[in-house]
Structure formats: C-alpha cells, structure tokens
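Service request form, structural biology core

Requester: graduate student, group of Dr. S.
Request type: structure prediction, single chain
Budget code: on file
Notes: please return the result as structure tokens.

Sequence provided:
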Amino acid sequence: MILDSTFLVDFERERKKRKPGAASAFLRAHADDQFCITFTVAGELAAGQSLGLERSKWYRFIQPFRILESSADVAWEFGRAFRYLQSQGTLIGANDLWIGATGLAHGLPVVTRNAREFERIPGLVVLSY
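Core staff response, request fulfilled:
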C-alpha cells in the first residue's frame, strides 16, 4: 500500500500527541501489509515544518517505509492520467497525480484522507481511513 502525505501527517500528529487515532488504527489493522511512500511524499514531508527542519528526524520518520522511485512506467501512468483528467476538466494537484501514477504502475492502492481527488484517476484503488 502507498501511504499518502495526508495519512502520514495524521499519523505523525497522533504520535506527537501520544493519542492514537484513525491513522494508527489503520496501521494496526493492516499490520501484515507492506507500506510504501512515493518520492513525492518523501519530498512533501521534507518540505514540511514538522519534519523538514531536521534531516535526521525526517529520515527516522520515513525510514520504515519503502520509497517508490519514479520510473518510465510511473511517468507513462502520470501522462495517461493527466490526459484523461485534463480532458474531463478534473485535474488534481501534480504531487497527487504522481502518487496515483505510482500506485497504478506498481499495482498498489493509495491510502489517503483525500479520497475524492484520488478517485478521479481511472483504475486506481483508493483506501480511506
């Protein structure tokens, strides 16, 4: 499963407050699954105020997750989804489009609180928490 940045922000807030919530419950319920993040999610977290100010803190947070890099297949899925969404007048943000394209290329669902946007991408499996 690919964890979207909304999921990871919620998870980090829950950890900071030491108060488990929906993100923590999702992880517990799927303890046997492998969790991944995309290069774009890693970048969004690095840009954030909470984790991005200290590289070691950011790295400790992302280290448990497999980082899925860009590839020719991801780029193709990005272009295909972009063309479709543009033709429908329903484009989503570029980072979300990269995340969705990565999910399509790897055959993995995306876990997000922002299901409305990701569900616009044809063929992408989207899981809410």
